[in-house]
Amino acid sequence: MATLVERTEASPEARERTKVILLTLARHWSVQAGCERLGVGRTRFQDLRRRMLGGATRALEEGTAGRPRQLEDRESHEMRTLRGRIAELERELRRSETELDIARSGAGRAVERRLAAKAVR
């Protein structure tokens, strides 16, 4: 147990507190012995034990499955929206240019006459 605590990323003081609290929880040491080892009173010891157990319990909460979602920043969302709008406007422009070319070539009048003739029938 002490070896596992030594491998954790924490200050030497935090590792010592963890070892002492674990020894008291396992009933290898009395709470009084733990208080003496850490140089704290019983109330402070109980507070440390409560904080340690609370942190350990929260660390073991079930999370959602899979990788965490990447939050898209606002700027990249706006850029994607603007790119979509540009593409839409470019399509509209090409369509308008095509319609204008048809109208200028005279084909537009021929199409109009055929549509009018069909409507009369």
Report the span from N to C terminus: 96 Å
Q: Output the helix-strand order.
A: HHHHHH
How many DSSP H or I helices? Answer: 6
- Oligomeric organization of the protein chains: single chain
Low-confidence stretches: none
Number of strands: 0
Structural class: mainly alpha
Percent helix among the residues?
over 70%
How much of the residues is beta strand, in percent? under 5%
Describe what you observe in this structure.
The protein has 121 residues and is mainly α. It has a domain at 2-59. It is built from 6 helices and no strands. It has helices spanning 2-6, 12-25, 31-38, 42-59, 74-105, 107-120. Helix 2 packs antiparallel against helix 3. The longest helix is centred in the last third of the chain and has 32 residues, at 74-105. The radius of gyration is 38 Å and the shape is rod-shaped. The N and C termini lie far apart (96 Å). 6% of the residues are buried. The mean pLDDT is 85.
Q: Can you give me a brief rundown of this structure?
A:
The chain is mostly helical and 121 residues long. It has helices spanning 2-6, 12-25, 31-38, 42-59, 74-105, 107-120.
